[in-house]
Design a protein that fits this description.
There is one protein chain. The protein is an alpha+beta fold. It folds into three domains: 353 residues, Alkaline Phosphatase, subunit A; 93 residues, Arylsulfatase, C-terminal domain (2-Layer Sandwich), CATH 3.30.1120; 203 residues, no CATH class. The protein contains 20 helices and 28 strands. Strands 7-6-5-8-1-9-13-2-14 form a nine-stranded mixed sheet, sandwiched between helices. Helix 9 crosses helix 10 and helix 18 runs parallel beside helix 20.
Length: 737
């Protein structure tokens, strides 16, 4: 065998074979809220207001996708879907307001959003984990918003990123590499960088060239930005290895302001404004791209992207001698959703000719800029094939040479052939051509299910009554059908102005049937109907709650039954583990989670999870109305600032969850004893918990102290299965938990 091997090595073919190309680097830049028409060279009307020379250059030197989409019209579901390679319908993260008890907007809004989780479960596989297994060093810098409540756990290092840097609403700051953070740079170590809110207002905190200014201007008059510095530092530290950088600038999301006075002056002049003397609205009553603050932010993020590209162009590639890093790096620039049009008091940007913007399922809310530059990418080329950010997971796998894995259950498809221009079709894992994409967005801003099939788009407005009477919307069934691409392949009704649902009923109904099949297969929770908006007959048919009951860790609710009453067809127990006493942010991270139930005639049962403090049954009757185990106020009566645990009157408070936690503690006793571990601390905690459990009157602080103590004692028994229980490790960064 040795002779054969040597012979093969010394063969002419082997001697002349080119060395295998090293794995390419992948730099993914997801700008926050960047609109489809915000890049100067992408403006359809040619009337560019914002200056984006670096993005324009990437467009000239790379490939632009004109029909790219985000998975959702808001940030959290899109970011989770990118990381997971799945539609929001399958990740379970539908919008940014998850982890709450479902409540109606008001007494007049006919539908309300269902319960949905807030962030990516830590056990779900991510693209970072897969690339790490393929030999990549992985890093995330900037906006996260893919974890639990308040953009919290799991953080980037918990889901496959070797390096993570992000700020969590000022409460929790994540950075796990002191080489990149450099404590000695104390003055410049501002977590959110130049995007951080200006104080006392947006015309009073411009960057200067002073040495003690954390945003010290460079020689070109650009403010220093710490997250950008971290990105450049990461690439420099790991340039001798294949790296994946997920760079998510906090720009161009609000607050809308700029530390770059020079750019603000530039755009005020371009737009015909005097430099502002107060921090109020600068463009009242105006539309279009008329906001100099926002223009300055687009200009700034363009410059930041340029700095990343410049570094790659100027730096030698240790893995590819004689070449720069840029020669073996894919740069992908996109956005998490469409551009934010703005609030009534201040117009922000304009997505025209597209309809709507962020928080809307029309094209303005989900069509995004998408540019790729990299090896094998034709300069100045375009691709008009419909793609989605969920496609990046399998595409990055292909770039990295990772083997496909059906167990990942990806919804996205590999689009590397489209990037290289060798195909204009998206081929799915089963070998078939993809012609259909879905969006599930059951949020009040635009409660919809959307389907794109070839040239056509179907919008199923689930909350038409809340949205109002849109022109062209069939108020009977809320369906809108648009021909996005014309028959000759040119742009069709991009503005979604002509509803063809009545004109093409066969097309409409066929697409609707496919949409319903997708929702059924995804097992989504659909929006509820609001019983307060029901007819008298519908209210009379909805079963009333008779009694709440509990026994040890079992909880139940009984309801009216009868031939004239609608049955309960769906139910969840929604519970929380961390009300205010367990949360250092004074309840801002309170998060509600789902537990399974058993539905029987006139009764719904569940087992309370260990450590749960409050719970509520959310049930759907046969007519689609929400029935809760106790009455809940609408958001006009108690807005989102009011924590759900303070609203529930009964909530099966503390006792059932404490009982379940005690049982988990007893299981831990047995496991620890078998392993020869000291259980004295656990014994003390169980005794304290049992004493609280048998008290007739609940006193919040003592019972919370007992729960906290028992959780900690179980966690401390490392090596036991009970110590790894996810519900006692749910909030690992909060010392009160």
């Amino acid at each position: 065998m040795l002779a054969i091997a040597l012979g093969s090595i010394s063969s002419p073919a082997a001697l002349n074979a080119a060395p295998a190309a090293p794995k390419p680097n992948i730099v993914h830049i997801m700008v926050d809220d960047l609109g489809w028409q915000d890049i100067a060279s992408h403006k359809i009307d040619g009337n560019a207001i914002y200056e984006t020379p670096h993005l324009d250059r990437l467009t000239r030197e790379g490939r632009r996708f004109t029909d790219a989409h985000s998975p959702a019209p808001t940030c959290a579901p899109s970011r989770v879907s990118f990381l997971r390679g799945q539609y929001p319908a399958n990740t379970g993260v539908y919008h940014v307001m998850g982890g709450r008890i479902p409540r109606a907007i008001s007494k007049t809004v006919p539908h309300l959003a269902p319960y949905y989780i807030y962030g990516l479960p830590v056990e779900e596989p991510t693209i970072a984990e897969v690339l790490k297994q393929a030999g990549y060093v992985t890093g995330h810098v900037g906006k996260w918003h893919a974890g639990g409540k308040s953009a919290g756990y799991p953080f980037p290092p918990d889901v496959g990123f070797d390096f993570g840097h992000t700020e969590v609403n000022g409460q929790r700051k994540i950075c796990n590499d002191s080489d990149l953070w450099r404590p000695e740079d104390r003055i410049k170590n501002n977590w959110a960088g130049s995007w951080a809110q200006m104080k006392p207002d947006r015309i009073s905190d411009f960057a200067t060239d002073a040495s003690d200014d954390p945003y010290q201007l460079d020689e070109d008059g650009r403010p220093f930005d710490k997250p950008l510095d971290m990105v450049l530092g990461f690439m420099d530290k790991y340039k001798d290895r294949p790296f994946f950088m997920n760079y998510c600038p906090f720009y161009v999301h609000g607050p809308f302001g700029t530390r770059d006075r020079k750019r603000l002056e530039l755009y005020c002049e371009k737009m015909g404004f005097e430099f502002p003397t107060d921090s109020g609205t600068i463009n009242p009553g105006m539309t279009g791209q008329s906001n100099p603050y926002y223009a300055s932010m687009v200009d700034t993020v363009d410059w930041m992207i340029g700095q990343v590209v410049n570094y790659l162009e100027e730096t030698d590639d240790p893995r590819n001698p004689g070449h720069k890093l840029i020669d073996n790096t894919y740069i992908i620039v996109d956005s998490d959703n469409g551009g934010y049009i703005g609030a009534p008091k201040e117009w922000i940007t304009d997505n025209s000719p597209l309809r709507g913007g962020k928080m809307s399922s029309y094209e303005g809310g989900i069509r995004i800029p998408f540019i790729v530059r990299g090896p094998g990418v034709e300069a100045g080329s375009t691709c008009d094939t419909t793609i989605n950010l969920i496609d990046l997971f399998p595409t990055f796998m292909e770039m990295a040479g990772a083997e496909s894995d059906v167990d990942l259950e990806l919804d996205g498809s590999d689009i590397l052939p489209l990037i290289h221009g060798t195909s204009d079709q998206v081929i799915q894992a089963d070998g078939s051509e993809r012609d259909t994409l879905y969006w599930f967005y059951p949020a009040e801003s635009h409660m919809t299910v959307v389907m794109r099939k070839g040239d056509w788009k179907l919008v199923n407005n689930l909350g038409v009554g809340y949205l109002g009477k849109h022109a062209g919307v069939d108020q009977q069934n809320g369906l809108e059908l648009f021909r996005i691409v014309a028959a000759d392949g040119s742009n069709g009704d991009l503005g979604e102005r002509e509803n063809l649902a009545s004109q093409y009923p066969e097309k409409r109904d066929a697409m609707l049937a496919e949409m319903d099949a997708f929702l059924t297969a995804s097992k989504v929770t659909m929006p509820y109907r609001n019983l307060k908006v029901a007819t008298a007959e519908e209210r009379a048919a909805s079963p009333a709650v008779l009694e709440l009951g509990l026994d040890e860790d079992r909880v139940w609710v009984t309801l009216e039954t009868g031939a004239s009453l609608a049955a309960i067809v769906e139910a969840q127990l929604i519970y929380t583990l961390n009300p205010k006493p367990f949360d250092t942010t004074r309840g801002h991270r309170e998060e509600w989670l789902p537990a399974p139930t058993k539905i029987s005639q006139g009764r719904v049962d569940a087992v309370m999870p260990p450590g749960a403090t409050h719970a509520l049954f959310c049930m759907r009757d046969a007519n689609g109305f929400l029935v809760t185990s106790e009455p809940m106020p609408d958001l006009q009566e108690a807005n989102y600032a009011v924590k759900d645990s303070t609203i529930v009157q009964d909530g099966y408070a503390y006792k059932p969850g404490l009982y379940a936690l005690i049982q988990l503690g007893k299981q831990a006793q047995a496991s620890a004893s078998r392993a020869g571990l000291d259980v004295s601390a656990l014994n003390d905690s169980i005794a304290k918990a049992q004493a609280q459990y048998v008290t007739e009157t609940i006193e919040e602080q003592p019972i919370c102290d007992a729960i906290r103590s028992l959780r900690g004692a179980i966690r401390d028994l490392k090596g036991t299965p009970e110590a790894e229980h996810p519900l006692i490790n749910r909030f690992p960064t909060d010392p009160l938990f």
